[in-house]
Amino acid sequence: MRFHLPRRYRRKLLFPPGLLALAGLLWLGCLTVNLWQGKLSRKMIMQLVLLPKHLPLNQCNNYDAPQLMSVTELQAFRTWREASFLGNPVTDAREQERTIGLIQAMMADSAQDGGVRIRFASTARFKDLVFALDLMNREKVQKYRLDIHHGPVTLYAYTYARLRHIQYQTMESIY
């Protein structure tokens, strides 16, 4: 019993039997790698230095550091623009957009001392903190502090008025 019909014309195959399948597999692999290109790129490493929790004030040479101030001194240090991350994906996505606007407004206003206080609730996710630190790097905020000493974890970003800061430096150089 024969189940297959014999061919009338026998001709050589253009490709060996598995080569076409292998080429298709290579093409699919290239498409998949192209989709993952952003995740395969080299990541940036940011170093974050936190002060010890029980550091006496006389051992710190930077006295305007917000993490070393009491809660009342923190309120008087700046007029803070507030942002908070609660851990809810819907509200945190809106809060990210709002935080970007607050940071850009703070950096654009060079005539006044500016400050943005970003609070992270205990239910907030780690990616929100990474977003905030990345935002500080992208917007070139040079003065920011992560406060783990008071209440909820808080990131303080602040600027000094450029004109007053330049006048202070020139007065300091005269004396």
Task: Give a written overview of the molecule.
With 175 residues, this protein is of the alpha+beta class. The protein has a domain at 62-158: 2-Layer Sandwich (Translation Initiation Factor IF3). Helix content is 42%, strand content 13%. The chain is built from 6 helices and 4 strands, in the order H-H-H-E-H-E-H-E-E-H. It has helices spanning 19-35, 37-40, 71-77, 89-108, 126-138, 162-174; strands at 81-85, 114-120, 144-147, 153-159. A 4-stranded mixed beta sheet has the order 1-2-4-3, covered by helices on one side. The mean pLDDT is 79.
Number of strands: 4
Give the overall average pLDDT.
Answer: 79
Oligomeric description of these chains: single chain
Query: DSSP strand (E) fraction?
Result: 5-15%
Main structural class: alpha+beta
Largest sheet: 4 strands, mixed
Return the CATH class of the domain at 62-158. Answer: Alpha Beta
User: What are the secondary-structure elements, in order, as H or E?
Assistant: HHHEHEHEEH
Query: Which residue ranges are poorly predicted, with pLDDT under 50 across at least 5 consecutive positions?
Result: none
Going by CATH, the architecture of the domain at 62-158 would be 2-Layer Sandwich
Using only CA atoms, what is the Rg? Answer: 29 Å
The CATH topology of the domain at 62-158 is Translation Initiation Factor IF3
- Alpha carbon gap, first and last residue: 111 Å
Strand order of the largest sheet: 1-2-4-3
Q: Helix count?
A: 6
- The helicity comes to 40-55%
Shape field: elongated
